[in-house]
Design brief:
The protein is of the alpha/beta class. Helices cover 62% and strands 6% of the residues. The protein is built from 23 helices and five strands. Strands 3-2-1-4-5 form a five-stranded parallel β-sheet, with helices on both faces. Helix 15 crosses helix 17 (405-437). Mean pLDDT is 83; it is low at 445-452 and 454-484.
C-alpha cells in the first residue's frame, strides 16, 4: 500500500478512538464535580505523553521486525511461550472489544443526531455486526479510496470543529464558558484521577496496527511504515488534544443522551450540514475501525493454530480466501459482549483498557529483551524508548485492573486467565498426539515392491489446484454427464480400483492408511496438498525417506485451501478414467473425548458430502486411535 492509503486504513482504529477516549476521561472526572473536572487538562497531557512514548516505542518494533511484529510474535520470541499467550489473550480481548466499542460508539453518534433511534441501539448494533460478518465472509478487504475516505473525512471534521471552536474562543479572549452546575458524588483524590487516566488512555487503541502490517507497504516497507506511524501518532495527539481543549473552552460535560463530540459539533456548526457531516464521518470511521479487527483477529488465531495453541480449523481459508472460522468467532463474541452490556460504551470501556495495555506491556517488554540480547547499532536508545513504553503501559494496565476491577475489568482479567488455560491444554493435547504419531524407524517396515497406478499414466487436472476457478464442491458438471449405466459393475471381477490416499503429513496414521491401501493389492496414488513450494519440497524429502515405494502427486495450494484442490483432482481423475472406481482413503485421528474431536480435521465428512454426486467415488477413513488415554 502507498502511505496515503495506508495511513487512513491502518489508523482508523487509533484515530476513531478520539470519539470515545476523551469522553471516557471526562465521564470519570465529573464524578468529582467541578473540582474533578479541573484535572481534565493535566490528565490529558499525561495521556498525550503516553501516546508519544508508546508511538516511539513501536517505531523501534518496526525497525526490529520489518516483516511484521505484533504483540504475540514479539512477546513469544523474546519472553517465551506463556508471555506470548498472555499477549495473544490481550489482543483477542482487544479485537473483540474493538468491534463492540466501535459499534456502540458509532450508534451513540447516530442517536445523538437522531434521538428517535435511541431505543433501538441494541438490535441495530447487532445488525451492523451481522453486516460486517457477511461482508468479511465475502472477502471484503480494507484497501483503496473507499476505505480511506471515512478516516480522512473524520480528520477533516474534527480539525474543522476545533478550528471553528478556537476562532469563537478567540473572540472572547479564550475565556472558558462556564459548564453546567455539577454535584460531586465522589471525593477528588488519586484514585479518581488514576481511573480517569486509565479510561482516557483507551484513545490509544490500535496504535500497533501499523507494526503488524509492515509487509503491506510499498518498498522500502519498514521505512514507509515508520513514517506512516509517525503521522498517525501526530494526528492522534492533535485530534485528542484539540478535543480536550474544546471541551474545556466550551464548558462541555458528558451527557447521557448526546456524545461530547456531538455537543462540540453543535457549538461549532449549529445543526446544519457540517454537523451532519461530522456525525456521519464519526459513525463511518468507527465502522471502519470495527472492520479492522476482522483482519487482525483471524490472523492472530491463525498464528496460534499454527503453533498448536488453537484448533487447526483456524488455519483454513474459506472460498473467498478469508479466515472464515476466525471471522465467525469474532462476530459471535462481539455480538454477545455488545448485547450483554446493552450497547453502552461507558460500561464497555473498563474491559477495553485491560486487554489493550496488557498487550502493549508485553510487546514493549519483549522489545527491551530483544535489544539487550542483540546489542545492535543504537540499541541503547531503542531500549530506552521501549523500556519507557513498557513501564507506562504497565502503569495503565495495573491502574485499569485495580481501579476498574468492580466495573468490569475483572471480566477481562478472567477472560485472559481462561484463554491461557484453554490454549495451554490445547497445546498439551496436540503435543501428546504428535508424540503418538511420530514415526519410529524400527517400527516401520518399508514394502519392498512398488505398487503403481494403472496403465495410461497419472491423470493431470486441467488447472493448478488451489487457484481461483477450480472445481467446486458438488461436481454437478461431471455427475450430470454420466449415462444411466455409469455404475454397471455387479460382480467383484468387474470393479477396477484406484486408491487415492490423501496425506497432510507423514506420520503413523499416514503410514497406516498407506499400508491399508497397499494391502488391497490395487493401484495406489498418494496425494498431498501443500501450501507453498517450500512445504512441498519438505514433504517430498520426507517421502523419499519414508514412502518412496508408492507414486506421489503433490498439489501446491497457496491459499491453504485443502478440500477444493482435493475435489478438483479427484474430479479430474474421474473425468479422465470413468472406468475406475476411485477410493479416496483418509487417515483419521480418533480421540476418546468429544471436546478433543473439534481439535482435529473432519476432512472425510466434507469430502464425502462434496463427492457424493459423482458416481464410482468412495470415501473411506482409516482410523488411528491415540494410544495414550491422557491425550485422548
Amino acid at each position: 500500500m502507498r502511505k496515503v492509503v495506508a495511513l487512513p486504513v491502518l489508523s482508523a482504529d487509533a484515530l476513531s478512538s478520539v470519539a470515545y477516549g476523551p469522553e471516557a476521561l471526562l465521564a470519570v472526572l465529573v464524578l468529582g464535580g467541578t473540582a474533578g473536572l479541573a484535572y481534565s487538562v493535566p490528565v490529558a497531557l499525561a495521556i498525550v505523553f503516553l501516546m508519544l512514548a508508546v508511538g516511539l516505542s513501536y517505531r523501534q518494533t518496526i525497525r526490529a521486525y520489518p516483516h511484521g511484529g505484533g504483540s504475540y510474535i514479539v512477546a513469544t520470541d523474546n519472553l517465551g511461550r506463556i508471555p506470548g499467550l498472555v499477549a495473544a489473550a490481550g489482543l483477542m480481548t482487544d479485537y473483540i472489544l474493538t468491534v463492540a466499542v466501535s459499534v456502540s460508539s458509532g450508534m451513540a453518534a447516530v442517536t445523538s443526531a437522531i434521538p428517535g433511534l435511541s431505543g433501538d441501539v441494541v438490535p441495530i448494533g447487532v445488525l451492523v455486526i451481522a453486516v460486517l460478518l457477511a461482508g468479511n465472509l465475502r472477502g471484503v478487504r480494507q484497501a483503496g479510496a473507499l476505505f480511506a475516505a471515512p478516516t480522512y473525512a473524520f480528520i477533516v471534521a474534527i480539525f474543522a470543529l476545533v478550528a471553528f471552536g478556537l476562532y469563537d474562543a478567540a473572540g472572547r479572549g479564550f475565556e472558558p464558558v462556564p459548564h453546567p452546575p455539577l454535584h460531586a458524588v465522589e471525593g477528588v483524590g488519586l484514585l479518581l484521577v488514576m481511573r480517569a487516566f486509565a479510561s482516557g488512555s483507551t484513545a490509544m487503541t490500535g496504535i500497533e496496527a501499523i507494526s503488524n502490517a509492515v509487509p503491506a507497504f510499498k518498498p522500502v516497507p519498514w521505512r514507509n511504515a515508520r513514517t506512516t506511524l509517525s503521522w498517525m501518532i501526530g494526528l492522534l495527539i492533535a485530534l485528542f488534544a484539540g478535543t480536550i481543549a474544546m471541551t474545556h473552552l466550551e464548558g462541555v460535560v458528558p451527557r447521557s443522551n448526546e456524545t461530547v463530540l456531538s455537543q462540540l459539533a453543535h457549538h461549532s456548526f449549529g445543526s446544519g450540514g457540517m454537523y451532519v457531516f461530522t456525525q456521519a464521518a464519526t459513525a463511518l470511521v468507527l465502522l471502519l475501525a470495527a472492520n479492522t479487527a476482522y483482519n487482525d483477529f483471524p490472523r492472530v488465531l491463525f498464528l496460534l493454530a499454527r503453533d498448536g495453541h488453537a484448533p487447526r480449523i483456524f488455519l483454513r481459508l474459506g472460498d473467498r480466501l478469508a479466515f472464515s472460522n476466525g471471522i465467525i468467532l469474532l462476530s459471535v463474541a462481539a455480538a454477545l459482549v455488545y448485547v450483554a452490556f446493552d450497547g453502552d460504551t461507558a460500561t464497555l470501556i473498563p474491559l477495553y483498557a485491560v486487554g489493550v495495555f496488557l498487550a502493549f506491556t508485553l510487546s514493549q517488554s519483549g522489545m527491551v529483551v530483544h535489544w539487550w540480547r542483540g546489542r545492535e547499532r543504537h540499541w541503547r536508545k531503542s531500549l530506552g524508548f521501549n523500556a519507557t513504553g513498557a513501564v507506562l503501559s504497565a502503569l495503565v494496565f495495573i491502574t485499569a485492573g485495580i481501579t476498574k476491577f468492580t466495573e468490569g475489568a475483572w471480566l477481562a482479567i478472567l477472560a485472559v486467565g481462561l484463554f491461557l488455560l484453554v490454549t495451554t491444554r490445547i497445546h498439551r493435547h496436540y503435543a501428546r498426539v504428535t508424540e503418538a504419531l511420530r514415526l519410529r524407524p524400527q517400527r516401520i517396515e518399508i514394502p519392498s515392491r512398488t505398487i503403481a497406478p494403472l496403465a495410461g499414466g497419472e491423470p493431470r487436472p486441467g488447472r493448478r489446484a488451489g487457484t481461483a476457478g477450480g472445481a467446486t464442491a458438488g461436481g454437478a458438471g461431471a455427475g450430470e454427464t454420466e449415462s444411466a449405466d455409469a455404475e454397471p459393475e455387479e460382480s467383484p471381477e468387474e470393479v477396477r480400483h484406484l486408491s487415492v490416499v490423501a496425506l497432510d503429513s507423514l506420520h503413523r496414521a499416514s503410514m497406516r492408511a498407506l499400508a491399508y491401501a497397499a494391502s488391497l493389492q490395487q493401484p495406489v496414488l498418494a496425494l498431498h496438498v501443500s501450501p507453498s513450494d517450500e512445504d512441498a519440497e519438505r514433504f517430498r524429502a520426507d517421502w523419499l525417506l519414508w514412502g518412496d515405494h508408492l507414486p506421489l502427486r503433490i498439489i501446491v495450494s497457496p491459499y491453504r485451501a485443502i478440500v477444493t484442490p482435493l475435489i478438483s483432482y479427484v474430479e479430474s481423475l474421474h473425468r479422465q478414467r470413468p472406468d475406475l472406481t476411485i477410493t479416496v482413503i483418509i487417515p483419521e485421528i480418533v480421540v476418546r473425548h468429544w471436546w478433543h474431536r473439534i481439535l482435529h480435521s473432519r476432512l472425510a465428512g466434507r469430502l464425502r458430502r462434496a463427492l457424493r454426486p459423482l458416481p464410482k467415488i468412495v470415501v473411506t477413513t482409516v482410523p488411528f486411535h491415540v494410544p495414550d488415554g491422557r491425550s485422548a
